[in-house]
Specification:
38% helix; 6-stranded mixed beta sheet; 14 strands; alpha/beta; 12 helices; Nucleotidyltransferase, domain 5; 2 domains
């Protein structure tokens, strides 16, 4: 992290999710630092408070009088809250208490609202983080597809002529259009990917139990960066290849010792193919609906940007990473925390 006087003006961009808090420190229009903290929000607001405190400890100048805070969220979907409206209001209140009067909440269309107006605009604030990323990217790429594959979900957003041309704004509509795919590379239960898999020369049924997650397959393939692997495994166990093999084995009624490691890797790759094919089908669906050309480039973001790159290759599309468009940042973390970076970079976010 760059050094400087504590009172120096800065912008903090926040993305409050149901499993992680992501934040970006912006100074003079450049990203100085980006980070992510685990935040199992469904377990209580204390986890959000702890994540905010960790961020402020990392960046103490974020509380200086001249500093500003802008935030977006998806955490209102956590079942801690009776409904999404309550979630937006409570998250905004917690942020306001910790971050002070400069806080503004992103409400789409590059609009930021102060905390006292959150109740009136909660529907526009809820799960709008993808809009921030797309709004920053659109004028920089012209025609493209944004493919943000995170720990839990995937956003597929069409960009045309420097504009965002999404069909839906809220989660319900985006699920209907294919622009929101509830799969990610860390937290998704493996039973959600395929009802049957190939194992030991046979097609076998998969147990519909929360025995393993997608992080287990990408640990075995070696594609998931350990720094991005922050969610607890399904059994609360270790984040190691050995533990991941055992969790995969449970999914098919086996123990890891039953087969050689190479066969568990083949099983992981079979699940990887299932996830890739599902996301590819939604990319094709969104591209067709938006009228994008078959060779329009794909821009990858999220901790699953590695999978986005693989999908672009399979579809014959040019590929660039979101980090390539961010001034001064560690590209990898900028991709993982793209919405936090984006809200900080938006003009209203800079004040």
């Amino acid at each position: 992290m760059a050094s400087g006087p504590e009172a120096r003006a800065c912008v903090l961009g926040w993305d409050i999710g149901g499993a992680h808090v992501k934040a970006c420190l912006l100074e003079a229009g450049r990203v100085v630092d980006v980070a992510q903290w685990p935040c199992p929000l469904w377990k209580g607001m204390v986890h959000l408070e702890e994540a905010i405190a960790a961020a402020l400890a990392r960046w103490p100048r974020a509380l200086a009088a001249m500093s500003r805070h802008v935030a977006t969220m998806t955490g209102e979907m956590a079942d801690l809250f009776v409904d999404r409206e309550q979630g937006v209001v409570r998250i905004a209140a917690a942020l306001s208490e910790s971050l002070g009067p400069s806080l503004r909440l992103y409400a789409g269309d590059a609009r930021f609202v102060p905390p006292h107006e959150v109740a009136r605009h909660w529907g526009a604030i809820a799960s709008a983080n993808w809009q921030a990323t797309a709004a920053v990217l659109a004028p920089r790429v012209g025609d493209a597809l944004l493919l943000d594959i995170g720990s839990t979900t995937t956003d597929v957003i069409a960009l045309r002529g420097g504009r965002v041309v999404a069909q839906g704004l809220d989660d319900a509509r985006r699920l209907a259009t294919g622009e929101l795919v509830y799969q990610g590379v860390v937290r998704t239960p493996l039973c959600a990917l395929a009802p049957r898999v190939a194992l030991d020369g046979r097609i076998v049924n998969v147990m519909n139990e929360f025995f393993a997650t997608t992080a287990d397959i990408y640990r075995l393939t070696g594609e998931l960066d350990p720094a991005h692997d922050q969610a607890a495994p399904a059994d609360g166990g270790a984040r190691t290849p050995e533990a991941s093999r055992q969790r995969l084995a449970r999914m098919v009624g086996r123990d890891a010792r039953d087969l050689p490691d190479a066969q568990w890797l083949e099983l992981a790759q079979d699940w990887r193919r299932a996830q890739s094919e599902e996301i590819e089908s939604q990319v094709a669906r969104v591209a067709a609906a938006s009228g994008l050309a078959a060779d329009a480039e794909l821009v990858g973001a999220g901790c699953g940007a590695f999978l986005a790159a693989s999908i672009a290759f399979r579809l014959g599309r040019a590929f660039r990473r979101f980090g390539a468009f961010v001034p001064g940042a560690d590209a990898g973390w900028a991709e993982v925390c793209a919405p936090a970076v984006a809200v900080a970079l938006l003009p209203d976010g800079e004040g």
